[in-house]
Amino acid sequence: MSAAAKLLRGNKINRSRAGDLLLFLFLAALGYFMALPLVFVISNAFKPINEILQFPPKFLVRNPSLNNFTDLYNLMSGTWVPFTRYMFNTFFIAFIGTAGHVIIASLAAYPLAKRKFPGVSVLFTVVVLSLMFSGTVTQVTNYMTMSWFGMIDTYWAVIIPAIGSSLGLYLMKQFMEQIPDALLEAAQIDGCSEYRIFWRIVMPVVKPAWLTLIIFSFQGLWGAGGAAGSMYIYSEQLKTIDYALGQILAGGIIRTGPSMAATLLMISVPIIIFVITQSNVLQTMSTSGMKD
Amino acid sequence: MIPLSRKPGERVLKQPRASVWAKKMSEVKRHKHMYVMIAPYFTIFLIFTVLPVFLSLTVSFTNFNMLEFPDWVGWQNYARLFIRDDIFLLAVKNTIYFAAITGPISYVVCFVLAWVINELSPKVRAVATLVFYAPVLSGNAFIVWTLLFSGDSYGYINAFLLKFRLIAEPILWLKDPQYIMTIIIIVQLWLSLGTSFLAFIAGLQSMDKTLFEAGAIDGIRNRWQELWFITLPSMRPQLMFGAVIQITSSFAVAEVATTLAGFPSVQYAGHTIVTHLMDYGNIRFEMGYASSIATVLFGIMLGSNLLVQKLLKKVGD
């Protein structure tokens, strides 16, 4: 048995060896392409300065060192706004936005999934339609609304729209539909209020779904300093690590090391969260389909 | 006591001759807790997603600079867009070209990859999922591509080509209009294995295994037939969801373009509808004109999504 065939053991019926090999090669080639830039980040984060300036450049690190991380630390302690402030901003936006989204979207998903009342189908149709256009379409008028509310140049300009994102509500609703009605009815007969049913029965059952929402929301907000942040937030002391990172990177080749160290630190947080919750995420996504 | 929700076909005590409206109102009253629960989400959703769409439609018929009161100009913005604004037409061309390539490719790759990964043993599958999903997880780590495609001989692509004597001198990848679009497409494809990829993997994993056994008995001979006759038809809901996500994101490309090629890019080679929108909305503050750009983009996104949904409904029919 070839190595590829060994790796590709699935349900054994209807599988040819040639097909196994073909698919394995496809997977390997694509995997290489996908992993290349990430390997580059990791490798460069540990490269000492002479290897970064080496010509021709070597892709992989020869003598790994932690210098870039200490350089990054020194570079950051010299900035006008302390680095801890950027970190606080990033964490604040990511945590408040994610928590708000998970709670409020779940709260709204339960009635949409499990109760029939006037307006429910119209509301859900609007949510599905909103999946069909990107937030960029509304960014100009959103800017106007936010300036009326006085939200420009505050954290809330990034946080509040993320709380109302439609993908999270959609996934949560699809997942909650799988909860057996009998469970809810039993609780009702026992005299539970709707809020209590939601909090004590529905929420624990849909734990995989809210872990998924946490991944999506956190991942979006964690890097939000770049796109949404620069649009709505002007004050230096309210900007995120993402923005600070861009500033270091703008320093050119000599800053490659520290900026790769910073990038590595930035991307490791969402990746760690994903690794921890992966199985739960896939469980939720299995219910994501759109029925006609 | 809390009223039980009504089953279809179940009869409810009703007053004779109660008007439709009164019935609706009592229904609403009966479900007041439901409205309380959905209120926070839908307040935000309506203000920051639905309202802006309508506002954008309205503002697109005005001349508005955020300072003075807007004045109504009718179709003038649209006329200017399509007749006088050559750069917009270039942006539309770029966007459609871009979406026509990345949309279908990323959609098919998402599915094929998910399908191949699903054949792996669970441990390998988890690792492979992480490898392919990592670019999306890593946020804007795509800036590393600017280093790979850097225009001097320190750029890795240049160094590689120079080493093998394929080129005589470094190529200014991100400054040469000839290459900009291709590079943006490559990077966007790298980033495109996102939500729909996860949806496909999960959909495949939750498929009914007995279907395959039954298929084998019924004479399905290889994996390709299995894919066509069993897997694809039962994946229809996920396929529809994936299509929506993929189409929407391929029309919205901007961040990758501006990060890699700069803003504005050389000879507008990486200019898309969204970057044009950012130009007028966030820099020049011509809100009326920017809104008409947004409205056109909205129409394109919604239209192509509805069209593809209609086509996908035919899969397996």
TrEMBL record, chain A:
Where is it located? Cell membrane
The record ties this protein, via PROSITE patterns, to: ABC_TM1
Bilayer-crossing regions: 21-46, 86-110, 117-134, 154-172, 209-233, 253-276
Keywords in UniProt for this one? Cell membrane, Membrane, Transmembrane, Transmembrane helix, Transport
Per the record, the major location class is membrane
- What topology does it adopt in the membrane? Multi-pass membrane protein
Domain ABC transmembrane type-1: start-end pairs: 87-277
According to the lineage, what is the superkingdom? Bacteria
| Record family assignment | Belongs to the binding-protein-dependent transport system permease family.
Protein name, as recorded: Carbohydrate ABC transporter permease
